[in-house]
Fold this protein.
Amino acid sequence: MPWLQVKLEISPSIAEPFEDLLLASGALSVTYQDTQDTPIYEPELGTTPLWSQTTITGLFEADNDMKAVEHYLQQGFETLDPTTSFPKLHIEILEDKDWEREWMKSYQPMQFGERLWVCPTWCEPPNPDAVNLMLDPGLAFGTGTHPTTALCLSWLDGLELNDKSVTDYGCGSGILGVAALLLGAKTVLAIDIDEQALKATNTNLERNQLASNRLQCFLPEDAPHERSEILVANILSGPLVELAPAIASRVETGGKLALSGLLANQQQSIVDTYSEWFELDPCQEKEGWIRVTGTRK
């Protein structure tokens, strides 16, 4: 059965009540999209900001009376924003598909560095003799598709990790910590502020048939203060600057550091902050994102 998709541009000030209108008119789901493709990288904690012009989309079953839906939405819009003309509705027919299979096509095995592959569980590893990390997309950040994750995975692949201790600060899905173990690390301390991330990390540890005692997950306030030989933090520039003393204190003298989650224009503030504790290498860039690495003084 095909579906009908209704799109229109609205002000973010009425986004939530207009979402209620769409659901009341029969929409099965509602999504938001930035009309002008202006990313919001670091919103304030506890906020859900929208863009200056938001495209809102409602998905309807094909047998809905769309003239009645449009009339209902127009009446509701005039109540919400009487000073603005009702925007034009764009109604599209979506062909029926096996959406799960369509989604799965988006994730294929990816290689990072010389040895490491990240493979979804429904795919055979292209090179069975490689270091193959089995991981499916989930609720926590980190599948290898984002440039910052790719930068960190390639860095780990290029290190000698045998019997090393590693801290994954802001572990997300656990992809970096699990990769470190598969590449030879002895232990990993995984830290994240999100309990869902800690659950995802443990799930991916089990999925890769690694011993549970080799990776320990903690919320920041519960994490033991241990120094490691390798620390990787793929978070955002604000927290990286704020947490710099705490992060630096977790790396032993001569230990290696990698920081990512950074835009190219945020490089200088990170370099200025971390040069107090680390001899920093030239930054690496990928698609406008950067990775900062260094050695603890």
Observations:
- The mean pLDDT is 87.
- The chain has nine helices and 15 strands.
